[in-house]
Amino acid sequence: MELGNKVIITAALTGAMTPKELNPAIPLTPEEIAEDAYNCWKAGAAVVHLHMRDEKGLGTMDKERFKKTVDLIKQKRDCDVVINCTTSGDNRAGNEERMAHLPYVMPEMASFDAGSFNWMPFGIFDNSPQFLELLGLKMKELNIKPEYEIFDSGFMNIVNYYVKKGVLSEPGHYQFVLGVNGGMEASVKNLQFLYDLLPEEATWSAFGLGKQHLPIMYATLALGGHIRVGLEDNVYYSKGRLATNVGFVERAVRVIKEFGKTPATPDEARQILGIKKI
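User: That's the sequence. What structure does it adopt?
Assistant: Structure tokens below.
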């Protein structure tokens, strides 16, 4: 299978914070999230990145909500989308709670937010060295592919540290998160800088928050990376026009094809990322 021309689209459906008041299309319940996941897969997404919300619409690491959502997705017999679960969906959760859903749900991928920083103006995005070691070892034990979420350049050194220690394995998959207030700004220059830090054989993806979504998408495609879209990162399709997750995926498909490439299927994504289908 020729994979060099394939681009993985990840749909990040809801996130932990953005309220439905900003965009009514943000899915909050397991039923809404699962339906959006299915429709994004039909539109061309190979991976769905899942956060959960509680009854008040706040981010939660409730393993039962993860289980219900994933079960609803898998009930769609034709759907083979790769499921990627967050491990940082609630800043009130302790270390064990942040990992409890992994053996319970057994997603093929999960996020590994590779460091801490001041997420302005909300507070500290806390990913302590002790937690990251536990998380890396748990993912290795369960054979879950980590997605190294990189909010700043120093996070690359943290990943390297755990690779050398044997907590993480190579080749890794890196997700460059640009534009968070407190992390690296979303600029093509910063994307190029992070790209130059990648280890050989690594796979990578990137996105920019808000209005930097499209510039980072285009630059990522030019550099040979994969892309992430979704209401977790941006609630507007264009200035003044509210977005939907499916609309974002459909645009990504068009852009990739206009670029002379092809959206990856879930099984192609698994092959690119080194994931064995469960």
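Residues 30-43 form the longest helix (14 residues).
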